[in-house]
Amino acid sequence: MPDYNGSETEKKWQARWKEQKLYETNLAQPARPKYYNVTMFPYPSGDALHVGHWYNYSPVDTWGRVMRMRGFEVFQPMGFDSFGLPAENYAIKTGVHPAETTRANIDKMKEQIAAIGGMFDLSLNVETSSPEYYKWTQWVFLQLYKKGLAYRKEAPVNWCPTDQTVLANEQVEDGKCERCKTEVVQKNLRQWFFAITKYADQLLDYEGLDWPEKTVLMQQHWIGRKEGINIDYKVKGKDMGVVVFTTRPETNFGATFVVISPEHAQVAALTTAEHKQAVDDYLKETKKKSELERQMTDRKKTGVFTGSYAINDLTGYEMPIYVADYVLMGFGTGIVVGVPGHDLRDFEFAEAMGNIEIIRVIKGPNGEMDAITKAEQVQEDEGEIINSEILNGLKPREAISKMMDYMESRGFGKRVVNFRLRDWLVSRQRYWGAPIPIINCEKCGEVPVPEKDLPVVHPHIEDYVPKGTSPLATSEAFVNTACPTCGGAAKREVDTMDTFVCSSWYFLRYPDAGNTEAAWDKKRVDTWMPVDMYIGGPEHACMHLLYARFIHRVMHDLGHVSAKEPFKKLVHQGMVTKDGAKMSKSRGNVVSPDSFVAKYGSDVFRMYLMFMGPFTEGGDWSDRGITGVARFVERFYRMMTQDEKQAAGAAPLRGVGEGMDGLVHQTVARASEAIDKMNFNVAIAALMELTNEALQKPLNGAQKEMIVRLIAPLAPHLAEEVWEKLGHKESVFNESWPKADPKFLVQTSVTYGVQVNGKLRGTVELAADASKEDALAAARAVENVAKYLEAGIVKEIFVPGKIIGFVVKA
RNA sequence: GCACUCGUGGCGGAAUGGUAGACGCGCACGGUUCAGAACCGUGUCCGCUUACGCGGGUGGAGGUUCAAGUCCUCUCGAGUGCACCA
């Protein structure tokens, strides 16, 4: 009996699939119901595919194959996120131009993906750094621009004074440049933004989406919708006011101070001559600190008095106004009202300042009013309002809206909704990205590049190491151009786009990747969108997945796509570890797939990755563990190719196939169910059990065919080989997904556990349709059970198919 | 600090509230072999017992239930996310 030769067999089938164009999708007009199966595309770094990619792609392919066998026309494309920092950094490190390294890496990765033997369509050439693609990324930018969703404003960046370059947050370590260790400073640049905040409310609508609850929760928090009220306070002795935002106005009778953010424009006007020096010093101190440092100072509150007072209309209280860096300019109004009796940060600030009065307006559940010595006692959600005139006796939650009504009716304030989400900064002062399609003309100002002139070709520049401005600025041929409006001399925008822009629409390009007339044909995209299954890492929960939803909704509003949401079902894969630790180059524990694929074949490798643990939870790689799956493949092949005479034991216990129908159908049912839940490990375990059994009691032809179809999505090459050996000419992937026949799932007998006072005391085998009386009688008769029943039965339990139980006197 | 997820043999992990440890790795013994590898078979939670069995057992402490790995409360530990969001 010949052994199964994985590598040989896999080559043979991969060639045959290609030749027969087995996985080609009819994109214009799917013959069967469509199924759009997408995995987050990789960026081609210099390190090629690692185990993590395989861990991700194998189940994606398995899932796609299952859906194909379930009668869907499956579209399973793959592209490359080839602009961006990793490629640029790799190029800087190696001294080879990013265009070259990117090309080489994509080719290498394509080879590797082909070696998986998946249904992935690599022929689409969706590569974000190619002009055929970024032409349309620029088009997307212009759509947003036209809608007023792309705009410019000043914004701070991390700046390294030594390298004269802008740093991404991830290039800053402890406030220092990761390369030269120079202190990083903040610098303001005029930059491009997408107004994602205009879609904040819409993005909170997750209707119809089958997403992990956790991801939705994270996005909701990221968007951070807060309903509150902007309260207007007059400033004592000045012809001005300050506006504060609060969500808890019901505590306003306890407000004793106001804090303004150091960046706020009103600081100067509020500062009196007497306090100018102190405030100026404080502002100078703050400016020195980078954003990171300000965050690191953690809880120690600092601040200075401006000399001005805001008047609380409710009480007439004159609230001193302070400048303090714990108040953020970017949220609310940049000014906060301090209620030290009932807000932890306000309490800490009051303590730090020393001379701020603390008034309590909520009686805690314990009623302890005087003991405000500890911070924990400050924040109260429960309790009863006191010292607050109109609100006295109310619960804080009820008091909120009453207070808002009251303030609005008196003109003290106005209800507002604020979001934590900020607009998306999309410009980068980097080389390896899509140029922003804008021209700056002295006469006409900011002019969008006409769509007919796209793409704005990314210039080839030899010195692409980042300088003060974008490297694109060094190419005169690129920068100098004619104004599309007046025809006069003008300069191109030199910033490039954040790669998240490129990756926020690629799934719209796949179905119509060759289109040179438009980013996509609406009809074509409507045929395939939304993505039915989107699989990728959980680290993209807030950025990529939110940006993609935003862009997609904008495209929807502009009438370019019909679906509202891009991703119907979302699944995150877990992480592969080695000896419990995250794989990383610095630890030196990175497992490369290639050698294992060469040794065991792709089927074994991918099945082991799926067998390691539940897909969504990840697993720990073990060089030894893979041998278990390798053995299983051998055994499976043997089981499938043996006839009754070759059964491993002596003569088969029963005739070929006889009696195995139950197990076969049960295995189909169990494995299908497990695969639906993405618990591939359990599905494989079920197949192993069946194989162990079937080596002793051979299967008949029909049973074998059922099992081959079942294993096909998990081990496609192996399945094809066996399918052919069983006498078939057509691919097994043109067959349907096996369905368990309920007739064979009906058990004729059940082994019941018998519990006495919750402890297992014996088992009894009964007919599946045994009556309660018969079951209890049989259970009582079990010798070991009987002796415990002597104490006297209090209660009898019979759960059909599950358990028999007795409760006896203690 | 806050939020979420997860704690089950030597290891990876199974288990719609119903016989905990499926399946695999490893290990032990036996077979096959000149020998080894590979392969095949048997065993493998812990303690006591020749055995039938008995007792304990899913990070820890309580609770609900005839019955808890699973549900609830507290607690300890690990991982992930967010970082003063008023």
Structure commentary:
The chain has 27 helices and 32 strands. Helix 21 runs parallel beside helix 23. The relative contact order is 0.11. A hairpin with a 4-residue loop joins strand 3 (150-160) and strand 4 (165-167). Mean pLDDT is 88; it is low at 367-376 and 645-655. The protein is 35% helix and 19% strand. The strands form 9 sheets. Strands 8, 9, 10, 11, 12, 13 and 16 form a 7-stranded mixed β-sheet that branches. The protein has a 4-stranded parallel β-sheet with strand order 2-1-24-25, with helices on one face. The chain has 810 residues and is of the alpha+beta class. It binds one RNA strand of 86 nucleotides through helix 7, strand 9, strand 13, helix 11 and strand 28.
Shape: globular
Summarize the amount of helix as a percent range: 25-40%
Q: Average pLDDT value? A: 88
Rounded to the nearest angstrom, the distance between the terminal CA atoms is 62 Å
Radius of gyration: 34 Å
Compute the number of strand runs. 32
Number of helices: 27
What share of residues are in beta strands? 15-25%
Low-confidence stretches: 367-376, 645-655
Q: Could you say which structural class the secondary elements and strand pairing correspond to?
A: alpha+beta
